[in-house]
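Priority: medium. Attachment 1 of 2:
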């Protein structure tokens, strides 16, 4: 069972998400709350696999709550899926930087929401394809005037660096395999090594790091 915690300050939204997810045979809604402080407490108590996290809430916003939940070593397996009303929201970028595994628009279909929870629960990142590339590039351009040094990048091999650049370009493992003319298994091995060396949870964090470090530049591709 996938254990889910729902965090949203609108009661009717929480109830709707809870009813939808609880009806799935493989999902168990273990808690609901309407602010970030309570989310941190419930996450520590219930150890959910996935937290559906709103951003703009009273007491503590979803960004701080995400950061605190993911900083708890006991919650190492917890993943955060950010919910947002707007397709380009400056806070979404901050949430990804805080460690969220991706984001989903609140007007997504019921099937998309259920699929998103399952994707994130199995350890993959979920970045809404229609807006993610634009969002990352725009806020990397606006907010990161100078690259942030990441010394661990020097530990990557040339091929691992290339794989990271392709991840940042939005390519899937199968697409990377086709581009590099290698097997998908080989790509998975490279991806796992990149994540281990850089201390990354998933592809969402890989995209953010690639842009923040200057490895990939907004509108300019790999450096």
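Attachment 2 of 2:
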């Amino acid at each position: 069972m996938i254990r889910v915690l729902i965090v949203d300050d609108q009661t009717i939204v929480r109830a709707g998400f809870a009813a939808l997810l609880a009806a799935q045979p493989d999902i168990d809604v273990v808690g609901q709350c309407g602010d970030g402080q309570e989310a941190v407490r419930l996450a520590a108590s219930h150890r959910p696999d996935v937290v559906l996290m709103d951003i703009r809430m009273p007491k503590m916003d979803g960004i701080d709550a995400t950061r605190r939940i993911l900083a708890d070593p006991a919650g190492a397996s917890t993943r955060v899926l950010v919910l947002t009303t707007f397709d380009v929201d400056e806070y979404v970028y901050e949430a990804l930087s805080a460690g969220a595994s991706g984001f989903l628009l609140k007007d997504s279909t019921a099937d998309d929401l259920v699929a998103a929870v399952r994707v994130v629960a199995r350890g993959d990142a979920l970045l809404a394809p229609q807006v993610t590339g634009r969002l990352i590039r725009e806020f990397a351009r606006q907010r990161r005037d100078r690259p942030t040094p990441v010394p661990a990048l020097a530990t990557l091999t040339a091929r691992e660096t290339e794989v990271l650049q392709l991840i940042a370009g939005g390519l899937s493992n199968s697409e990377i395999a086709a581009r590099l003319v290698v097997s998908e298994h080989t790509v998975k091995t490279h991806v796992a090594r990149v994540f281990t060396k850089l201390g990354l949870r998933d592809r969402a964090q890989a995209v953010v790091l690639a842009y923040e470090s200057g490895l990939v530049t907004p509108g300019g591709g790999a450096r």
